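This entry is listed below:
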Amino acid sequence: MRIFLFFVVLFLLNISCKPEVKKQQFDTTKETKKVESDTAYLVAKTKAHNWISNLKFDLDYIQKKKLGDKKFLAEYLGFYWKLFKSEKDKLAKEQILIQVQPYYNFTLKDEYHNMQDIDDKLFKKNSMSYLRVMWLLDELGFDISKYRQEVDRIKPRLDLHLKIRGNWQKEVFKEYYSFFDMKMPKILQMTKINNGVIAKQLAFEKYDRNKAYNFTHFVFAAFEYGNKTTQSRFNTSDIAYIKEILPKFTYHYRMVKPNIDLLGEFVTCMVFMGFTDTVEFQKSYNYLLLHQNDNGSWGSYEKARAKIGNDIDFRAYLHTTLVVLEALIEYNEGDFTGSVSKR
């Protein structure tokens, strides 16, 4: 019966996602009920969980190749954290912690904490993720006392490198420094709310991929990456701009230049901001469900596999699968009312 219901749901979703004429017309009709996809969501989440459970993720190998090991570990742990938050069953939560345990154990090794020894380029790539991994382990209930000691040891270098970070990045660092009661360097004390491309209210045509990613991260930062259900940084004008432009982004990265990684991020922005009651949201959400790979991942990077081998799984598929899963989980499990301005 469950299998039958799943295929019925997929059939209905497929009808709603028929190709459209590539003219940007957005149906803002209010939906009278939530997207009818509960069964498909649970199946997609289970498949994604199976995919990451079978992913070859060797931190020792990644570190020896001098790749962004902390960056990839933050994505890997972030994946399990989203699954952990979405589970209501105690045994399922315990199983997730068992799966995470070997990677926590790796962070207890001295060789993991090499931030003082790596070059500036790799330090920048890993620095925010280094703090995020500590935060994720704390959220999952692991003892982070050794990790915290290592962070304190490299903090002077961490403070110094902040001068080369962008605005939204400084604000995220500020959140971590505050959360862990770390002494703020002057550069963070002087950091004020800056909404970047959102405050500038750029015309849609002015956005390239980098600016599009920046847009999503200003929204993510406002909600502490899903840890807050409301925001206090966007004013009424910002909110109106975000509401007007988000459907343009989702349409563009769904129909014009398909990019499921960016689409997943923009769908999450819609969820965080509370803009989920339109046909454009439904079509984009359903598109994510219907474009999951057979193995449970999301994305299409097979051409790159010939060049970098199976590293493509953690270097590309991991991030895309994480951001799509996040969109699905936050929509189905979250309670966001973020479009309300508190400024």
Notes: Residues 1-35 have pLDDT under 50 and may be disordered. Residues 73 and 321 are 14 Å apart (CA to CA). The two ends are 50 Å apart (CA to CA). The chain has two domains: 1-65+195-343, 68-192.
